[in-house]
Amino acid sequence: MVIRINRREFLTNLTIGATTATALLGGEMATAEPNNRSAQNKSYPLFVSTWAFGKATNNAALGNYQRDKSLLDAVEAGIQVTEADVSNASVGIGGIPNADGIVQLDACIMNGPDHRVGSVAAIEGIAHPISVARRVMEKTPHVMLAGDGAQKFALDQGFQRTNLLTQARQEEWKNWQKKREKEAHSDAHDTITLLALDKNGDIAGGCSTSGWGYKLPGRVGDSPIIGGGLYVDNQVGAAGCTGKGENCMRYCSSFMVVEFMRSGLDPQSACIAAIKRIASTDPLGLNLEIYFIALDKRGNYGAAGAGKGFQYAVTTPEDSQVFQSEAVGGGTVGPEGGNR
Ligand code: ASP
Cα separation of 203 and 301, whole Å? Predict the structure, then answer.
């Protein structure tokens, strides 16, 4: 027998607090005043991105926004800059290859107002996976395309086939092969994740990465997984992850951060709460190597990491800065951050 219960009865029957009920059932973020751990922005648009290299991403996104006034265009244009940077060994051209010496890229883009998403995974030979992800969102009835299918779609859409493997990355890969290391390169990975908010409270986000260096061919990380590497909820805020994708995607981490914001936490506290929640049950404890950025609809933003901590970039028309994140568990923060 199916027992039907309406939302009001369900809420009345809940023996938990109103805030938790809001988190369970959705709805706008709780009205509790955010604590002051997160910074509050007063100038729009606001761009928050991962790592020190995110500053160039943010600046490009801002420039694009000031010309076009579309958050989605700004997110795409900002991430394209990082994808095109051959000196960045973890995103786009010049990204680190997989165990077979082939660069396979992951990316996704998400638009808050209509909750649309596009995503590509393990795509080869295409310089701007963020743009392919956007085409998936806008030109297909699907959310995610992977591997050969994603590449075929990109070529059909007019994207050019491009050699993504630079000589420098090829040399490093050959040396790694000679050593016959069985393990993927545990420290060679980063992601550009960009969150954007305009003065109307609309939110968009995107991310792009070559993923874990020397990964098994076909490995897909957290970045193209909605709710894993990125999540945007236009009623509440957005969150993104970088670091060891396996530890992020096992917990729908970005979704979790957004849900903590919905229940009333400010962005930084939400990032910390997600890390602590994961660490409380995971056999790895705090040795997770995951790092979050988050912003809420009111313009608060923050970040936190498990393990080594990291840097994140914040840009508005007034200012563009790189900050050290909170390192949960007292991990050390690298002097440079960015491209490891
Ligand atoms: N999260 C990415 C992945 O696992 C890598 C990173 O951001 O460091 O593919």
Answer: 13
